[in-house]
Specification:
single chain, about 500 residues, alpha/beta, Endonuclease, Chain A, 17-stranded mixed β-sheet, two-stranded parallel sheet, 19 helices, about 45% helix, transmembrane, transmembrane helix, membrane
């Protein structure tokens, strides 16, 4: 008996030493793994083996080292110049020019997206973290099938975990129509044991090599506020026209190479009429999806907006919004390269801000360097405002996030809790002329484990649009005061501190 205990102790010690040595460059992460291993020896070991196994995939590093001459015009401030210069080596292809349209919430985004998809003539590339088979998902799928039958070349990528429930019957219909479908890191044994912790968090659509969509909005009814469990959904997306599109195309192409073809070869031989009838009967019961040219589309969009009250004035006004001239840098977060590009970009923006920083994020679990950068920005006179959700998606992120609020409030950061519904936008505005919009959150998963895409935009007009939306969101928010924060109960504080221990793993 004693021999067995001694043997287990030796094995446990060796395992912990291996963890400590392997994660020496990230001591906080190593300590978290060791803590979980001590409390839950077996589960902790399994989690570490799954989450830390290297993925043997040849992944391109989409950074451009040769753009020393790319600079902003002299009309921009020094902080914008320094940020653009500092990010140049992390960008996909340097500083680009283009036109940017800010899209607020799902109603605006889906209206613009479906309009652009209908007008596609040559090619459509789509990549989504979440792609559902609900009302809006079915609508977009039908639209893609119709465009494919009209001769448009279409490629479709979905994430293997977040979109795992997308029906195979729909994939078959898409492939029968000529759409090429692939999946990143599918849940296929035994390979998923080494890829489960890596996800494709990007939201990218590229159309005809002339325009693109990216930001925080996936494809699902919840982004229209139609999920009764969530309610109103606040988000931000972008429509981009011009040479910037080529950078998003490059990211899509790189992800296409590492994605796995959908395994539906045994289904493809079936007659498309059979699968068409099957999915029509089972997709939404008796619910019919409007066809491409059906006037019911505008009625359906209006009904969604009417039911939710999510449209500001008239949703059709989004089509007349002006595209803003801008300089843009595109960055890709890649979990298979050692440099956390998105994290360093956030750090650069915060440290170079001279007047104002407005941050909107649903998940705020940054590392010590980001926290110190924010506190130092306040110390040098920068007004820093942080907008986070009052109610977050269930999990440990919410309690972990709250542990950062106290020191930030004491440092002078103004924190607001969005109380109208779910806040999912990922936006940062620096000095009223630099803006960042993308898919990445302020957490270690976005910084190190997910494929992410972010647009850094240099434009007073775009910054103004995003700032106006930020100010509007503050009207639906609760200012967090230090005295209110200090009134938390002891159980709340214990829960938050326990969640904070897992911050490097979130």
């Amino acid at each position: 008996m004693w021999v067995m205990f001694i043997g287990l102790y030796v094995l446990n010690t060796i395992f912990m030493l291996i963890v400590a040595v392997r994660e020496a460059r990230r001591p906080a992460l190593a300590l978290n793994y060791l803590a979980v291993r001590l409390v839950l020896p077996v589960i902790g070991s399994i989690l570490y083996l799954i989450s830390s196994r290297p993925v043997h995939i040849r992944s391109e590093r989409l950074t451009c080292p040769n753009n020393e001459s790319d600079t902003l015009p002299d009309s921009f401030s020094r902080s914008a110049m320094v940020i653009a210069h500092g990010l140049r080596h992390f960008t996909v292809n340097g500083l680009r020019t283009g036109q940017v349209q800010v899209l607020t919430n799902g109603s605006e985004t889906y209206e613009e997206l479906t309009e652009s998809l209908k007008n596609a003539q040559k090619a459509i590339d789509l990549e989504y973290y979440i792609y559902r088979n609900d009302r809006i998902g079915s609508r977009i799928t039908e639209l893609l099938i119709e465009r494919a039958k009209a001769g448009v070349q279409i490629r479709f990528i979905r994430d293997g975990w977040a979109s795992r429930r997308f029906p195979r019957s729909q994939i078959v219909r898409m492939m029968n129509a000529g759409i090429e479908c692939r999946i990143i890191f599918p849940l296929r044994f035994p390979r998923f044991l080494s890829t489960l912790n890596y996800r494709d968090h990007c939201k990218i659509v590229v159309i005809d090599g002339r325009e693109a969509f990216t930001g925080g909005i996936n494809v699902g009814d919840e982004y229209l506020g139609l999920d009764p469990k969530i309610g109103f959904w606040r988000d931000t997306h972008l429509r981009i026209v011009g040479e910037v599109e080529a950078d998003l195309q490059a990211i899509f192409n790189a992800h296409w190479k590492i994605a796995s073809p959908e395994r539906t070869s045994t289904w493809i031989s079936k007659k498309s009429e059979v699968t068409e009838n099957l999915t029509s009967d089972t997709r939404q019961g008796s619910h019919k999806i409007p066809t491409l040219d059906s006037p019911a589309l505008s009625v359906l969009m209006a009904e969604w907006g009417s039911d939710l009250g999510t449209m500001v004035a008239d949703n059709r006004a989004s089509r007349t919004k002006m595209l803003r001239e801008a300089y843009v840098q595109t960055l890709e977060g890649n979990p298979l390269i050692p440099t956390p590009v998105i994290r360093q970009a956030y750090f650069s923006c915060i440290t170079q801000a001279a007047k104002t920083i407005d941050i909107t994020t649903p998940y705020f679990v940054p590392d010590a360097d980001i926290i110190m950068a924010i506190k130092m920005a306040v110390a040098r006179g920068v007004r820093v405002r942080l907008l986070v959700p009052h109610r977050v998606i269930p999990g440990v992120v919410g309690p972990a996030s709250r542990t950062y609020y106290g020191e930030l409030l004491e440092a002078g950061v103004r924190i607001y809790l969005y109380d109208k519904g779910m806040l999912h936008a990922k936006v940062m505005v620096i000095d009223e002329e630099v803006a960042e919009v993308g898919a990445a959150n302020y957490d270690m998963r976005s910084f190190r484990l997910d494929y992410e895409v972010c647009e850094f935009i240099y434009s007073v007009d775009v910054a103004r649009d995003l700032t106006e939306q930020f100010e509007s969101d503050l009207m639906d928010s609760i200012p967090l005061r230090i005295e209110d924060f200090q009134k938390r109960t002891i159980p709340q504080r214990i829960l938050e501190q326990g969640a904070r221990l897992l911050a490097p793993l979130l």
